[in-house]
Amino acid sequence: MPKPRMIDPAPVSLAEKIIARAAGAARVSPGDIVTVKVDLAMAHDSSGPRRWRPKLEALGVGLWDPSRVVIVSDHYVPAVDEASAAILKDVRAFVRDYGVGHFFDMRGISHIVMPEHGLLRPGMLVAGGDSHSPNGGAFGCFIAGFGATDMAAIAATGETWLSVPATRRIEWSGMFAQGVSAKDIMLFLAREIGTENHNLVLEYAGPTVKAMSMDERMTLCNMAAELGADTAIIEPDATTLDHITAHGGTADASMLSHWRSDPGTDYEAVFKYDASALEPQVAAPHYPGNAAPASEYSATPIDQAYIGACVGAKHEDLEMAAAVLKGRKVRDGVRLLISPATTRTTERATTSGLLATLTAAGAILLPSGCGACAGMGHGLLADGETCISTTNRNFKGRMGHKGASVYLASPYTVAASAVAGEIVDPREYL
Amino acid sequence: MTDRPSRAWAFGDNIDTDVLAPGRLMKLSPEELARHCLEAVNPEFAQSVRPGDIVVAGRNFGLGSSREQAAVSLRILGVKAVLAKSFARIFFRNAINLGLPAIVFDETDAVSDGDEVELDRRRQRLLNRSRNASFELPPQAPAIAQILDAGGLVPLLERRLKREA
Ligand code: SF4
Q1: Which residue among A46, A72, A109 is best mutated to probe the pocket of ligand 1, counting the most ligand atoms within 8 A of its Cβ?
Q2: Average pLDDT over chain A, rounded to whole?
């Protein structure tokens, strides 16, 4: 558990505070290269054990602290062929051999599974073996994505180097119009501020963000990856603490006064936007920055609608889809595939009746995991097919054939498009 | 040390990790996966690239996934260095960790596909023989140069752990 400590009184941002604590320094400044101790290290079946084992063996060491290592199988689940079955078998053997402290086997997508078990807390410094690790910044921790060699080194030593990013504050005020959500903010930002926000932490703030649930805050932080930022972070508040304690984690109010950006923080920049003016957004192939109001792509026919991925299939994402699909049917000739982010998401949606609403509309339920988002599971696309998807990136060839087209949108927009058989503005369906 | 001149393979902005290492092929062995590197934008590349060649690109090279195979594939194909106007953070780290120099270079437009170039990383020089132009490259942070000089993060760590033992 990270402990607050006395720091230099000059104002610093939340991210700098966490990095300084992890580096054992009084303070750090953007551009400094520092060595930090990590509080938690996560990897999944694709990036973790199969890449770590040979490196750990070459170094002749085990895990620096098995109780601080999280392994999640989500990319190759459930096994679709011999190769994926073998990868999963190796993951399980690794977990046994190295005594990994937290293992979630086929329980859903890592970024959602971790907070579902209260593992992320304000002030932590977390290394994630996946590019969407910034998702966890919603909990007020500094969490960034790393590749396999970096992660293997972290697994062996508990340390890594960081180039301290500058903090950019992005404030949203105003209430969303009906049918608009956090996903639309991120697609809008991908166009507005681009995908090259290198060496930056995006700190989301403002009344719109304050009013958001943790599911929606995660969506904001998740897609910092698309914006090219090092990570994203949101100052913790009562919503954060309630979520952590409700999910078995420990949190207390003292975290709120310490783990925040100091008043007077000298941000790299402060951007301000009005959420009430935001329209539903759609990003055209093959680049998340190709975003525009959904109306600009209306009447684009679709073959598939996909509600899945860490960014787009949490409980509230399914609720948004259900708000549109209730009492409606998916258009003939279109397939709507839904892969809930975690098995707990499915459980909850079953109890609440949400799932029945979705399947009654004609949705086809898929297992929890990365699935088609990673181009690995079910629901891949053929040459020339078009899909509208709640996922976070639409690079060429990512969800199947390189001749397929993927449009990115919110769960509202994807569900409404599934009903229409073509891309539509969801506001007509609410 | 400058060896034989390298061929430059030029690419545009936003070369992503799915183009470098397609997700649907990630179960293949690294060697097989490397044969598909960049095929969505240049089908010639993986077939014809020779050890010592150099990749030059525009902005935001390597955006996307954390998959190290994006950098591994370039290594396997023998690419000596990647020069780009900017790099996505994780790709940059992955390349350095594997001992593949990723060099920020503003003037990649001064190198065309097929140009004959000579790169001297330590002296921070790039010579474009085809255009008879020479460039100074920006210095690398000591922490990064140290990893590259060791041949990657694992060899560096191996030495460190041995020293500590
Ligand atoms: S769901 Fe997609 S974006 Fe999220 S971790 Fe899995 S592959 Fe990555």
Answers
A1: A109
A2: 96
* pLDDT exceeds 60 at position A1: no
Most informative mutation of A111, A112, A345, A387 for ligand 1 (most atoms within 8 A of CB): A111
Given phi > 0 = left and psi -120 to 50 = alpha, else beta, which region is A192? Answer: alpha
pLDDT band at B27 (very low <50, low <70, confident <90, very high): confident
pLDDT band at A36 (very low <50, low <70, confident <90, very high): very high
Q: Output the residue whose Cα is nearest ligand 1's atom 7.
A: A374
Could you tell me which residues come within 8 angstroms of residue A329 by beta carbon, excluding any fewer than 6 positions away? A361, A362, A419
With beta carbons under 8 A apart, name residues in chain B contacting A400: 24
The residue ranges of DSSP E strands in B11-87, in sequence order, are 54-57, 81-84
Q: Which domain holds residue B35?
A: 6-139
Question: A310 CB under 6 A from ligand 1?
Answer: yes
Instruction: Read off the pLDDT of each residue in A110-132 and give the average, rounded to a whole number.
Output: 98
For chain B, what is the domain count?
1
Q: Residue A5: is its pLDDT beyond 60?
A: no
CA A392 to ligand 1: nearest atom: 3
Q: In sequence order, what are the beta bridge partners of B54? A: B8, B81
Q: Look at residue B158 and tell me if it is in a domain.
A: no
Mean pLDDT throughout A326-350? 98
Burial of A106 (0-12, 13-18, 19+ CB in 10 A): middle
CB B126 within 8 A of CB B112: no
The CATH number of the structural domain formed by A14-273 is 3.30.499.10
Q: Is the CB of A410 under 6 A from ligand 1?
A: no
Mind listing the pLDDT tens digit for each residue in B107-146? Answer: 999 999 999 999 999 999 999 999 999 999 999 889 899 9
Is the CB of residue B54 less than 8 Å from the CB of residue B14?
no
- Which residues in B lie closer than 8 A to residue A33 (C-beta atoms)? 141, 143
Name which of B17, B24, B98 is nearest A400 (Cβ-Cβ): B24
Q: Is residue B19 part of a domain?
A: yes
Which CATH code for domain A282-429?
A: 3.30.499.10
Rounded to the nearest angstrom, the gap between the alpha carbon of residue B115 and the centroid of all alpha carbons in its chain is 17
> Mean pLDDT throughout A5-10?
62
Q: In this predicted complex, what is the ipTM? A: 0.89
Whether residue A224 is predicted with pLDDT greater than 60 in this model: the reply is yes
Domain presence at residue B67: yes
Checking if the pLDDT of B8 tops 90, the result is yes
The nearest CA of chain A is from the CA of B56 a distance in Å of 18
Cα A373 to ligand 1 centre (Å): 6
A-chain CB neighbours of B152 within 8 Å are 149
Partners of A244 in the β-ladder: none
B16 part of contact set with chain A, CB < 8 Å: yes
**Under an 8 A CB cutoff, do A396 and B157 touch?**
no
